[in-house]
Design goal:
By secondary structure, the chain is an all-alpha fold. About 80% of the residues lie in helices and about 0% in strands. Keywords: Membrane, Transmembrane, Transmembrane helix.
Length: about 160
């Protein structure tokens, strides 16, 4: 049976090389359908609302609000998928060989590094939009704490 892109993405994120059984496929497909339907409805509604609001407010403010709301929708979708994966124990995985374990560790660090970069970009953009004065110490402390949490997650998951 051919795997969907979403199933391949879940396998890549969690470093799984073996095919899913029927129950796991059903759970992943059901979650993917809910996320896809929710995102389609949200994007349609947010487009209509931003068009209506654009008539009354400055378009640049509406665009920033639309981008922020779309990012929040994606974050909610990713959180939902993470909850589903953890609820059914799909993140608990026994690695059959050392090569597969190394691949999962590499995937874990790549995923968390990309997340750190996007979060730092989001904080910088938020600082610019709000005309805030986030100091360098805030970014440094946040990055160090995030890297520490990555290390703790690595110890919990792979040791």
């Amino acid at each position: 049976m051919k795997e969907s892109f979403f199933t391949k993405m879940i396998k890549f994120i969690y470093g799984i090389n073996e095919p899913f059984d029927e129950f796991t496929n059903k759970v992943i497909s059901e979650a993917a359908n809910k996320v896809a339907f929710g995102l389609i409805v949200f994007l349609f509604v947010s487009s209509v609302v931003s068009t209506v609001i654009g008539k009354f407010y400055d378009n640049s403010n509406v665009a920033i609000g639309l981008i922020f709301s779309d990012l929040m929708a994606v974050l909610i979708a990713l959180t939902y998928i993470n909850v589903v994966v953890k609820r059914y124990g799909l993140d608990e995985y026994d690695y059959s060989n050392d090569n597969e374990r190394k691949r999962a560790i590499r995937s874990y660090f790549v995923q968390n590094t990309v997340t750190l970069v996007f979060l730092m970009m989001f904080i910088v953009c938020l600082n610019l939009v709000l005309d805030g004065d986030f100091g360098v110490i805030f970014f440094t402390v946040y990055a160090v704490l995030y890297i520490f949490s990555i290390y703790l997650g690595y110890r919990r998951k792979f040791k």
